[in-house]
Amino acid sequence: MPKDAYGLKVTNESLEERVELEPDNRAESAHRLLWDVPLSGWLSHSGDVDWFRLEPNSEWGLDDDGKPAQPALHLVLGGVPGVDLVLEVFDADHESLLARYDVRPKGKGEQAPNLAVPERTTFIKVSAARGSNAGAEYVLEAQAITTDGMEVE
């Protein structure tokens, strides 16, 4: 290769699994959130909300006692500078609030630790209690963690 030449590699990857897509401001149009795959999103204006749909994972297998393995759900919502984020978890009807997290200050994000994983679809809503920063993204991840010897909420 000549001294001034450079190489360019182009790949075609779907961003659908890793970036929230509008419209997702209602539970009916919720974006699918995959287990253990960070997803980037934006609250583009004051009052914007983003809804996500988390399906149970049928591939968790069996635990040591031969029962279906049931990990805990740990949600991690990364912070956005100048924004007080709110993380809410809803049942499959997307109306019954299971948990709400709004304890950390602006810019720090939220976490929902050790939630029991429902056996049906769960809906997650991200919104801002205060502040806005349309140019900054948040990162949301649904982590499946083992529950051996752990209390689950």
Major sheet details: 5 strands, mixed
What would you report as the Rg, rounded to the nearest angstrom? Answer: 18 Å
The low-pLDDT segments are none
Q: Biggest sheet, strands in spatial order?
A: 1-3-8-5-6
Percentage of helical residues? under 10%
Series of H and E elements: EEEEEEEEE
- Mean pLDDT, rounded to whole units? 81
Number of helices: 0
Briefly note the structural class of the backbone: mainly beta
Shape verdict: globular
The number of distinct β-strands equals 9
Strand content: 25-35%
In whole angstroms, the N-to-C terminal distance is: 59 Å
Fold and architecture overview:
- It contains no helices and 9 strands.
- By secondary structure, the protein is an all-beta fold.
- The strands form 2 sheets. It has a 5-stranded mixed beta sheet with strand order 1-3-8-5-6, with no helix packed on it.
- It is globular.
- The model has no long low-confidence stretch (mean pLDDT 81).
